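Run log // design_07
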């Protein structure tokens, strides 16, 4: 038979607390005579779980010879609503039967309604006692009374404590000598504000109740300290002027409750202080906690946020929004489901809501709840201001990068002029020759065609140089495309060919064959490569010309990254400057701005890559750029 305490025994919360606090074996039964609860000590003694003991299942552990007598005592007392005591053998977890002394008493609600029975049992096997003479029974009772770890005392209606066990004396701070002198009284132990509760309990007992309802109060110890206790009392069988009281120390429980309340208060404060819309859902997507935002901006996503309330299914709300045409809602519902099913460690998405005069941006973040039942914490924050700031920063970076490109190309003006002057001068010379040939009566047609072909080739070369410069000087918006990094580097090296000749630098290219594609903005990656190569030229200006060698190297550092290394033969970077070379305004040039490498770092970070600097073992510096690869089937530019 399977049942539960909550469904079968709706007793006062204090009764369940009593069952858990009693340090002996304890049980609770319902109005239908079925046992609905066994405390931890009982479960540990028998080695059975609560589910294996409920109902009549626990009887299997009672010795077969004792079961019938036990049932007769229990059922007879139950029908008469009276207390009972009994002895029987119960099988322990190791299979050995142990002799238990058990006492049970009926329980009533505050309005006198019978709620069931509670009982406690003590293992008396080691006491060496059994049924016998009155003297033996008295000795047995005395031993059980004194050894019981539950504070117990006998009292009279005039308030006198006539006997108490060691646990009770320890709880109240009094001694056995105080007890013998009559110095221990109920009214002396009870502060004035709780004495009315004691009088009510005695009135209930004298009115015929077998046991008074349990209640909480405080004991005033001998040293003046107050101790919170849970009181359960009953009259002794056959007496109307004396009874027994059980007082459980609630100090630890009260401290635990105080800490729990403090934790709840702290969690509530933290929860309420969270920014934006905060939703806590269980494993099925149902909202179990909610913190509404202060502003009304979330209402723009009305299909989702308008119906958010405790008990609603938050995942279904996002799915419904997706079915109505909201693409972002589909991504969010899949993300929440992934976190709930433990397929995703977390989920984040930035989405926008159209509005006037400008759209509003939000970030939704889903984090799993660290509890066995699962669930998730979902926050949604208005990030419009952050997005606007990021866009402004991107525009400023773009402008600064453009200025840096212009400055750098200005520094290379001499080499670009020399490179352009060669095809232009040749075109001029060829044009003069054409004019001379045409002035003759019978011009050499074949010779003219050859010269005109040279002019066309030279003009195309000049046009190509101008187009490269124009692209580098452009201010267009960043365009991310699949890029062949080797091809890009070759173009940059060709552009700087004359500069290398003027600076007397030998350029060595070690470009890996079949290099995977990377995703990026072509102009920005050209600017990074150009900056690193020009810096390398500058670093070698003070060393002898025969030693000026620049190595440009590419390779695959793993299956997921492409690496570029630009290595010069200069003096290297001072060790104390290695960590600062990418800082804004760091420069070794008297006329430099110190923004080139800083902008390079910002560009590479925007491409989800890394840039670093180190000194080569044989001298010189190495600047290393690492970029993630993309699908090799993409079209490269």
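design_07 sequence
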């Amino acid at each position: 038979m399977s049942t539960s305490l909550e469904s079968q025994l709706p007793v006062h919360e204090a009764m369940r607390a009593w069952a858990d606090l009693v340090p002996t074996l304890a049980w609770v039964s319902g109005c239908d005579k079925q046992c609905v609860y066994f405390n931890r000590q009982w479960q540990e003694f028998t080695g059975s779980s609560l589910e294996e003991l409920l109902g009549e299942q626990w009887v299997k552990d009672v010795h077969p010879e004792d079961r019938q007598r036990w049932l007769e005592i229990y059922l007879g007392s139950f029908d008469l609503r009276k207390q009972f005591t009994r002895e029987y053998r119960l099988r322990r977890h190791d299979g050995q039967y142990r002799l238990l002394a058990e006492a049970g008493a009926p329980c009533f609600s505050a309005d006198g309604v019978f709620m069931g029975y509670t009982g406690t049992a003590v293992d008396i096997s080691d006491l060496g006692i059994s049924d016998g003479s009155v003297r033996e029974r008295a000795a047995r009772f005395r031993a059980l009374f004194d050894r019981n770890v539950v504070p117990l005392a006998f009292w009279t209606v005039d308030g006198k404590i006539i006997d108490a066990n060691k646990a009770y004396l320890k709880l109240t701070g009094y001694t056995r000598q105080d007890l013998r002198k009559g110095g221990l009284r109920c009214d002396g132990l009870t502060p004035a504000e709780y004495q009315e509760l004691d009088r009510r309990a005695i009135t209930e007992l004298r009115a015929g109740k077998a046991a008074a309802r349990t209640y909480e109060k405080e004991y005033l110890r001998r040293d003046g300290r107050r101790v919170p206790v849970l009181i359960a009392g009953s009259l002794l069988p056959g007496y109307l002027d004396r009874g027994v009281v059980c007082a459980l120390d609630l100090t630890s429980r009260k401290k635990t409750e105080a800490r729990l309340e403090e934790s709840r208060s702290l969690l509530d404060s933290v929860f309420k202080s969270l920014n934006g819309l905060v939703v806590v859902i269980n494993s099925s997507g149902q909202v179990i906690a909610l913190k509404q935002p202060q502003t009304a901006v979330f209402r723009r996503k009305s299909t989702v946020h308008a119906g958010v309330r405790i008990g609603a299914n938050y995942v279904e709300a996002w799915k419904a929004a997706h079915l109505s045409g909201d693409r972002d809602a589909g991504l969010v519902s899949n993300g929440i489901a992934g976190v709930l099913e433990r397929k995703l460690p977390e989920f984040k998405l930035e989405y926008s809501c159209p509005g006037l005069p400008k759209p509003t941006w939000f970030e939704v973040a889903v984090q799993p709840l660290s509890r066995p039942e699962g669930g998730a914490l979902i926050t949604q924050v208005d990030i419009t201001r952050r997005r606007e700031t990021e866009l402004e920063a991107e525009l400023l970076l773009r402008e600064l990068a453009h200025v840096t490109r212009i400055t750098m190309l200005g520094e290379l003006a001499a080499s670009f002029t020399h490179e352009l002057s060669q095809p232009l001068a040749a075109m001029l010379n060829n044009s003069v020759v054409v004019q001379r040939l045409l002035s003759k009566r019978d011009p050499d047609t074949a010779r003219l065609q050859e010269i005109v072909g040279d002019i066309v080739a030279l003009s195309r070369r000049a046009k190509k140089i101008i187009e490269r410069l124009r692209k580098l000087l452009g201010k267009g918006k960043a365009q991310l495309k699949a890029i062949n990094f080797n091809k890009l580097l070759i173009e940059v090296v060709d552009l700087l060919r004359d500069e290398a000749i003027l600076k007397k630098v030998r350029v060595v290219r070690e470009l890996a064959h079949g290099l995977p594609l990377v995703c990026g903005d072509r102009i920005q990656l050209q600017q990074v490569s150009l900056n690193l190569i020009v810096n390398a030229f500058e670093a070698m200006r003070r060393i002898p010309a025969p030693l000026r060698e620049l190595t440009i190297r590419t390779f695959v550092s793993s299956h997921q990254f492409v690496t570029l290394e630009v290595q010069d033969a200069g003096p290297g970077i001072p060790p104390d400057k290695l960590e600062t070379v990418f800082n804004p305004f760091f420069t070794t040039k008297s006329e430099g701005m110190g923004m080139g490498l800083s902008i390079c770092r910002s560009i590479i970070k925007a491409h989800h890559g890394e840039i670093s600097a180190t000194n080569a073992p044989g001298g010189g510096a190495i600047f290393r750029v690492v970029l993630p690869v993309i699908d090799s089937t993409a079209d490269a530019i």
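Residues 1-12, 129-134 have pLDDT under 50 and may be disordered.
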